Amino acid sequence: MRFLSLLSFIxxxxxxxxxxxxxxxxxxxxxxxxxxxxxSVDVGAIPAGNVTVIPVIGGALIGPQISGKxxxxxxxxxxxxxxGAYFSDxxxxxxxMDNANIYVQMSGLMQRNDGLIYVRATFQTGHKDYWxxxxxxxxxxxxxxxxxxxxxxxxxxx
Length: 158
Known about the structure:
Helix content is 8%, strand content 58%. It has one helix at 2-14, and strands at residues 26-37, 41-46, 49-62, 68-80, 86-96, 101-110, 116-124, 138-144, 148-157.
């Protein structure tokens, strides 16, 4: 076991530093969203915790490359654990200002009691102007508001 630890340590020492070819990706702002939700449905306790479904009933988003409304299609299937964590699994439908339809799925985790949920998002669309979203690596934050959730979304750039 010590021999493997020594080999691992040596491997770290001889690994070359970040080179010109290994420039880390940047980030670009994607959008701010205000998601309106309806009354929650308590599914109840399961072995992992308690499941609550929160219906998505509308909203809007605005960003430099994508703006539109959030349709009344979708929900957040949330899991609250006995340890106090909250796992969000939200699915929603976006209709852009130019009538493109984009399906978004966000999942994330709230670990503290401050209400901040760190999320990652995937998008699906057949619209040529937003095709790039199918390959976007998106991440952001989601926080409860008076009528639902506020979301800030970013994407990695290369």
